[in-house]
Amino acid sequence: MLTVLVAICLGIVEGLTEFIPVSSTGHMILTAKLMGIDEQSDLLKTFEVVIQLGAILAIAVVYREKILRMLGLAPKTMRKGNAPKKQLNLLHLVLGMTPALLTAFIAKDYIKELFSAETVLLALIAGGLFMWFAEWKGNQRSSLSNTLDDITYKQAFIIGLYQIVSVLWPGFSRSGSTIAGGMLSRVSYRAAADFSFIMAIPIMLAASGYELLQNYKQFDWHAIGFFGLGFIVSFMVAYVVVVFFLKHIQSITLKHFAIYRFLLAALFWFFVML
Question: Which residues cross the membrane (predicted)?
Answer without folding.
Answer: 43-63, 88-108, 114-134, 155-172, 192-213, 225-246, 252-272
